[in-house]
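Hi support team,

I submitted a single chain yesterday and got back a structure, but I'm not sure I'm reading the token output correctly. Could someone confirm the output below corresponds to the sequence I sent? I've pasted both exactly as they appear in my results page.

Thanks,
R.
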Amino acid sequence: RIFLTTPFMWSEHEQPYDFQRFTSLGLRRLFEECGYAVRIQEKLGKGPIASAQLFTAWLLNTILRPVFPRPYLGVLAMAVVIAPIHGLALLLERLARGNEYTEEWYLDNLVIAEKCSMPER
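Hi R., thanks for writing in. Yes, this is the structure output for that exact sequence:
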């Protein structure tokens, strides 16, 4: 069995070794070509939550940390600025449930697969 998560849409990180992103369909194909049966596949951080996470990560790294370098001020900035953004994203996500477009916009892939048994010769 294998339990795998992969980033799909995120800022470049682990530079200079951040080379590739896997779509959900591409991952399924790779697993099947390698003799695995995908048991569970899920997109994580979908829709407005993905947008909020990307925006607040950018906001934290480019504005809040430089402006509030002290840890306690950073926590205050997160409570005052970032928490409401994520709260709004959760509300929007509830309103958008059932909208198929929400499934196309996501941060990570989760796959649980099992190696198919080889036929005896």
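A quick pointer for reading it: DSSP finds three helices and three strands in the chain. Let us know if anything else looks off.

Best,
Support desk
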